[in-house]
Design brief:
CATH class: Mainly Beta
Number of strands: 34
Number of helices: 0
Number of domains: 1
Strand content: 35-45%
Radius of gyration: 19 Å
CATH architecture: 7 Propeller
Shape: globular
Structural class: mainly beta
CATH superfamily: YVTN repeat-like/Quinoprotein amine dehydrogenase
Helix content: under 10%
CATH topology: Methylamine Dehydrogenase, Chain H
């Protein structure tokens, strides 16, 4: 059922503004618009971060967080497990507005910025579009089961998967449905752009490439096992983790698996989504480790140990990968060598992933803390220059 709740002037809802179309390969330095920052879900930011980021501010809430924040125009948007959405000032952490869903339905979906609005789903299957300035609801769309997937704006279409086994294509201005495609299991991951199609995976163990325009299936690859990880796209390859203890490299042009990585000494699932660094992908595992695998072969280049499982997804800035762990630490790892360069202990486990923009890293914890890290001396160099 579709419920249209026009709370703002229609003209303010500018999803077609090119500035808010997600970039293909990396997130620009001044904004973080969606879960993985780009349409190819690379987990790469072109921003600059200090080698040892300082805590600029923190905010304590009576809440809990699994979502990854969106950052745009010096505002942070972050949904919560208690069905709230917080809008905070990036510079000070001061709350601008707060939305509370009527039934406090948990939110694990990360928001997607669609111009004048943000969009996310909740655990009862409601997709909400909300005005970025006021927090008022523009429209809602109701799927038939929970939504963990973070929406993606592709070619003017809003794509979101649900646990009712459907991928939905919605109009971002009205919430009306353009098309839907049924799979054989819940859709957990976010759609990744692959040359006019989107790669979608879920709990049926199949990667599908669906045409953006009409949802028709171009091809599919069966890999077996449940999939929570969002695929990263590099050229003709897709990379993702699986819940059956493996990381997979797929040639999407040939519709075949080219390599499979399994830890030789013990087996644990991969819930984290990979980030791209040079010829590597970097991904967290429930084996309490962060793994760097060669894109060509799947061979492990390095392994970084934490003290608990890693469901957080890494973000690469320059030569460093930033990632959280259930051990309550936020880490900066040298992406080339796997050596720890920095860590910060937060209150509670970190399940969410970093959002990075304007020289700042924002992340939240399961204990209801929201943190912003950066440099107290703002860098004067042009945005987009890789960190040293």
């Amino acid at each position: 059922m579709l419920s249209l709740l026009w709370a703002t002037a229609f003209g303010s809802f500018l999803w077609a503004d090119p500035a808010f179309e997600l970039p293909n390969d990396a997130s620009p330095a001044d904004r973080w618009l969606s879960f993985r920052g780009s349409l190819k879900m690379s987990g790469v930011s072109l921003d600059i971060l200090s080698a040892e980021p300082e805590l600029l501010w923190s905010v304590k809430t009576d809440d809990s967080f699994e979502s990854t924040a969106a950052i745009v125009d010096e505002a942070i948007y972050l949904p919560s497990i208690m069905g709230r959405c917080y809008c905070l000032d990036l510079i000070s952490g001061k709350e601008k507005w707060r939305f509370q869903s009527p039934d406090e339905d948990p939110v694990k979906s990360s928001p997607c910025v669609t111009g004048g609005a943000i969009v996310y789903g909740d655990d009862v299957g409601v997709v909400r579009s909300m005005d970025r300035e006021t927090g008022k609801v523009n429209w809602t769309f109701e799927a038939q089961a929970e939504i963990i997937c973070s929406p993606t704006l592709v070619e003017g279409k809003l794509l979101v998967g649900a646990y009712d086994n459907f991928l939905y294509c919605l109009d971002p201005t009205t919430g009306s449905m353009n098309w839907k495609v049924e799979t054989d299991g819940p859709v957990h991951c976010s759609p990744s752009l692959v040359e006019g199609a989107v790669a979608v995976a879920g709990c049926d163990g199949i990667i599908r490439l669906l045409n953006v325009a009409d949802g028709k299936e171009n091809s599919s690859v069966e890999i077996g096992g449940n999939i929570a990880s969002t695929p990263a796209v590099v050229g003709s390859r897709l990379f993702l983790g699986t819940m059956n203890e493996s990381v997979i490299g797929i040639d999407w042009k040939k519709s075949q698996v080219v390599w499979t990585y399994r830890r030789p000494d013990r087996s644990f699932p991969f819930y984290s989504s990979p980030a791209v660094y040079e010829d590597l992908i970097i991904i967290g595992g429930r084996d309490k480790s962060v793994h760097a695998l060669e894109q060509g072969s799947g061979k492990e280049r390095w392994n970084f140990r934490t003290k608990a499982r890693v469901d957080s997804s890494p973000v690469v800035v320059g030569k460093r990968a930033y990632i959280g762990s259930h051990d309550g630490n936020l880490y900066a790892i040298n992406a080339k060598t796997g050596e720890k360069e920095w860590e910060y202990a937060v209150e509670g486990a970190i399940i969410s992933s970093p959002a990075i923009a304007r020289g700042k890293l924002v992340i939240a914890s399961a204990e209801g803390m929201i943190y912003c890290f950066g440099s107290k001396d703002e860098p004067k160099s042009a945005a987009g220059t890789p960190a040293p």
